[in-house]
Specification:
alpha/beta, Cytosolic phospholipase A2 catalytic domain, 8-stranded mixed sheet, 43% helix
């Protein structure tokens, strides 16, 4: 017997990338999305995107002012002392001695990043040279990390109410559905959190899904242990985990795999510029641009491949309809063969037949390029990134609305 077509469900998904302090840009983007009244069924993120996603998911489920909670978190991270603007501008004469005059803004950013490297961030990470009680304090050649993340866990516990992040009454079945499905009771639904980490020993992704397990501060920090910046790894259930961005910085496919039967409407925030007209002029700029390309990820390719899959499935549906039509001229032997694969067809179509209805991307751009901008936690830079995210999101949403009107 043919399985009846079920009404389609569309889930709205926010995908946030990793990028250190550039996560403040994601905060600005979310503020604009919240102003537009956009709520999300799934929050997916890697690295700092995992942290932002967790804060948003918890606050949204608790019916709090989610944008304000997220911004407060970022302003808390920005409270640490950084080099003063006076110090930065006083160094401008030295910069003029070089072949290229660095802008005051760029110099301040570089100094702030250097400050973070030396002193860490009191709300997030602490260098090991400030922890003399460490057993191998005088043996840095034995260190497998530089920055301790205990303070980050404490900060997350202040801003995330895990009662609203995890399963309701321990029953994941109560969480199924979508806020966009008119046949469900919205009061019983919670937004779903999907964050990613990487298993150090196996080299494979480890997914934390709030519909399948309880997530705590340790789980979130496990998704943000970026080894190239010396961030400490985490141990969860006997597995040693690093930053999820090592495998994918844009966990779009992970969101699709979580509920492959539901259509998706994606909002994706690109914190690393996709395009850069200027070619690198020195090795620092070479490394910077190469890093942008690596972390920009394969989002375009993933979307393209998913669209191709949609076409294949659509073609299968059409063939299936033709074969099962009352006037189809098919002999009994062929009908028997088709019946044998009917269950496989239903599993494929109804289990993986979701389509991507829409993708809205908000992409950050840069006027100047320097390598460690993702380590600048100065209050000035954080506030500037938040404003930039708000403005870019307004532009992206306006352009998306115009394109949709043209399609109509």
């Amino acid at each position: 017997m043919r399985k009846q077509e079920e009404p389609s469900v569309t889930e709205t998904v926010l995908v946030l990338q990793g990028g250190g302090s550039l996560g403040a840009y994601e905060c600005g983007v979310y503020k604009t999305l919240a102003k537009r009244g956009i709520k999300f069924d799934i929050l997916a993120g890697s690295s700092i995107g995992a942290i932002n996603s967790s804060i948003i998911c918890s606050a949204q489920n608790a019916h709090k002012d989610t944008a304000q909670v997220l911004e407060d978190f970022w302003l808390t991270l920005a409270e640490s002392d950084v080099p003063s603007p006076f110090l930065t501008y006083s160094l401008l004469p030295l910069a003029s001695l070089s072949s290229t005059l660095l802008s005051a803004d760029k110099m301040m950013a570089i100094l702030s990043s250097m400050y973070s490297v030396m002193y860490g961030n009191p709300k997030a990470f602490t260098p090991r040279w400030f922890k003399p009680d460490s057993l191998d304090y005088f043996s840095p050649y034995k260190w497998n990390y530089v920055y301790d993340t205990t303070h980050l866990k404490n900060t997350l516990n202040q801003y995330i109410d895990f009662r609203y992040l995890n399963k309701i009454d321990g029953d994941s079945e109560k969480n199924t559905g979508s806020k966009n499905n008119n046949n469900t009771n919205n009061d019983d639904l919670r937004s779903r959190l999907i964050i990613t980490s990487a298993d150090i020993q196996k080299g494979e992704p480890v997914i934390f899904d709030s519909y399948r397990m309880d997530i705590d501060a340790d789980s979130i920090v496990a998704c943000a242990g970026y080894p190239f910046y010396g961030i400490q790894w985490s141990t969860i259930d006997g597995r040693y985990l690093w930053d999820g961005s090592l495998l994918t910085n844009t966990p779009m496919l992970e969101a699709i795999k979580a509920s492959p039967e539901h259509n998706k409407k994606f909002y994706i925030v690109d914190v690393f510029p996709r395009e850069q007209k200027e070619l690198p002029t020195n090795m620092i700029e070479v490394w910077h641009r190469a890093r942008d390309i690596i972390f920009m990820d394969k989002t375009n390719t993933n979307i393209e491949m998913l669209k191709i899959r949609e076409r294949y499935l659509s073609l299968l549906k059409r063939i299936h309809t033709i074969i099962n039509a009352d006037d189809a001229k098919i002999d009994e032997k062929s009908k028997a063969k088709f019946k044998e694969i009917e269950s496989e067809y239903n599993e494929l179509i109804h289990g993986y037949g979701a389509v991507i209805e829409e993708v809205t991307r908000v992409s950050r751009t840069e006027k100047t390029h320097y390598l460690y901008e993702d380590g600048d936690f100065s209050a000035y830079r954080i506030q500037k990134l938040i404003r930039q995210g708000e403005e870019d999101a307004e532009k992206a949403l306006s352009e998306s609305s115009s394109q949709n009107r043209l399609k109509d």
